[in-house]
């Protein structure tokens, strides 16, 4: 398979005729058309994403997808659940809810889970893997701070697979980081991999969840919770969306109302995101979060090594001291 053929194959998988069209598809995956050192910085910040739990109707189908497409290792599997990860680190829990209704696209909940490759070469290798196995994609783009590919699992849970550019190349201005949705230079990316050989048998050990992107019902309310209460710092805002992080990462969390403006409380019986964890680096951070949760009147239940809370739409967040 030549590089050019791989490029055409990828465009076909996105359903696009050109790189510009593919970037437009990626922009739609991000909700708007306006505008690496791997996971090191994303996962050594004072607060970072830990793992995600999804409620699914077909456990085998979804577990096999994350194993075969993303390359996660099945760490534990029962008749009612599966835990998958990379490098011995759990990243994804799947819980069987066979008769659950599908969560509506205009409900609050998961927009996508973003899997961060350790290096750009790993992203290239994965892209060859996706093309070779004809994995349907929904878009790919250059975001200036990162390069990204978008897809959906069999139950329509959004996924981003990406690699960061070197943090020293990110452009900051008064606390705001420059990001865009430009065409991805596939040809340049594929110079890092052999397009004739699919050698991505499993995810690299350093793969982590770099960020989460959530649908919310009200942007200001979500910003008060995830910023003011949880403690993330704002890094960028645009129409209908905000991005927040810890430790000057470009974003650990995206929140948007592109489909979900005015959404009410989530249905806990439906498929989709059950909870995700935020790992915090010190007991002092956790204690400060607990105090702000009490002051805000937000849920704050004690769990092992931390606190379980929920945002205003019922998406549960586990704050874990690591």
**How many structural domains does the protein architecture include?**
1
Oligomer: single chain
Strand content: 25-35%
> How are the strands of the biggest sheet laid out side by side?
2-3-4-1-15-18-17-16
| Element string (H = helix, E = strand) | HHEHEEEEHEEEEEHEHEEEEHEEE
The CATH architecture term is Roll
The third-level CATH topology is 2,3-Dihydroxybiphenyl 1,2-Dioxygenase, domain 1
**Residue-averaged pLDDT, rounded?**
91
What level of helicity do the residues show? 10-25%
Total helical elements: 7
Q: Based on helices, strands and strand pairing, what is the structural class?
A: alpha+beta
Count every beta strand, where a strand is a DSSP E run of 2 or more residues: 18
Task: State the fourth-level CATH superfamily.
Answer: 2,3-Dihydroxybiphenyl 1,2-Dioxygenase, domain 1
Q: What is the makeup of the main sheet? A: 8 strands, mixed
How far is the N terminus from the C terminus? 45 Å
Poorly predicted regions = 28-38
CATH class assignment: Alpha Beta
Evaluate the radius of gyration.
19 Å
Q: What is the 3D form?
A: globular
